Amino acid sequence: MRVRAEQSDPASVQADVLAVPIYKDDIPLSGDLAKLDAAAGGVIAEAIEWGEFNILEHYTALVDGGSLAVSRILLVNGVRRGRGAWRARRIAATATRRLQGHGVERMALWLRDGEDEDAFSAAVVGARQGTYRPMDVYGRVRDTDAMKRSVGEIVFLDVPGGQQLLDRSDILADAVEWGRTLANRASNDLYPEKMAEVARTLEEDGCSVAVLDPDEMRALGMGSLLGVGQGATHDPRLIAIKLPGWDKASDDRRLAIVGKGVCFDSGGISIKPADRMEEMKHDKSGAAAVIAAARAVARLAPDTPLMAVAPMVENMPGGNAQRPGDVVKAMNGRTVEVINTDAEGRLILADALHWAETQGATHLVDIATLTGACAVAFGELISAYFCKPREWGTEIQAAADATGEWFWEMPLATEYRPSLDTPHADIKNSGTRDGSLIKSAIFLHEFVTKPWVHVDIAGTAYLTADKAWSPKGCVGTGVTTLARLAMDYAAGPKPRA
After folding, report:
1. Is there a catalytic annotation at residue 346?
2. Going from the N-terminus, what domains does the chain have, and what CATH number goes with each?
3. Catalytic residue among 284, 346, 439, 484
């Protein structure tokens, strides 16, 4: 899909379809929307009055273009959140998904309301997300050529920043879709060794890539990470991708992004229910996000002092699998009693985070499909995060807001730390169910000493059903936020007002 900036009046733009967001306050029509409707011969008002489009019931309505140069007008629900990147990203995704299979060569998108550069950048990402087809990963013989047709070109009207902004945003959008496909790949196709091969492709973008095998991790004392993967046929790997800027950075400015990479999570001995276990191929979404973000930043700002770390394992109930009651020793010297083998993500992150610090990371972010409790609490739209100190958390919140992802800070209530006490080790990997979302972050807190953010994307990493803006499956959560955070971080601390 091509993206192009054009300074044009929406009433005269040349395209197959003009996508127009409709907001709650737009009805009855007024202002710029009423002017467009008049130029079209009243077709928008007619569609609303006839009930073809209702802001409370419909995501889209495709109506005749009337007197305009376009063949059709696509009315798109402007959703209920305020203006900005989140809304623009959702509108664009909904528009291109609605037109999937229709053979639209050229769609114009009029965001209205004088949106800023962040909103247009997010809209480019959203537009690509709306055309994503998960079945393309492995192919489906029942697809017709028509089903595969996506919008060929999107014309964005009145873009601040012009074509240069769209071109840079398209690189970011490509990374989101690439990471999304990594997360969607089946476990028999993408296992730890294969993910390492994927990571090595970033050497073409100027990155240095190191892959630690089990013997190297054992020598470093990564017992927490290795214990998770000991029952699987495919051995663990630790992937580290450093951008060119990592070695050039000053000693106090290096960012490491760490992603949970469980290629398949059966739960181990504490096995999961069979229902929906197939979704556990998505438990590598955090690793996919950090690798994809690294690729985007390497192409946009290679001098960024960034390292992406992906601990990759399979959590399987083999004959040599980790057992409840086992005690492992993490790289930082702490011993961990494994109460629940299905609380494995925090075990691999513990060693990966500490290892990142030994490599010179001064600031850390981890991203993980970590807890079912997060999905229960926040659903599919909102990612929870924890931070220390809070000033570092505001940086990732700003990056999420700027790129159209919805993050929400949760309290790092260290008062719950005693619930992870055990007489058999320094800490146990799972406590009581009450407050379990917070307690998972408190566990990770034991393994970091630098400014750190933990992002739980258990609910937002993948959709369990088709939506108007996306098909089911992984959606590339976190890629844009991590990339924006890294590039803003490279620019240095901002002066306080």
Report:
1. yes
2. 2-158 (3.40.220.10), 186-490 (3.40.630.10)
3. 346
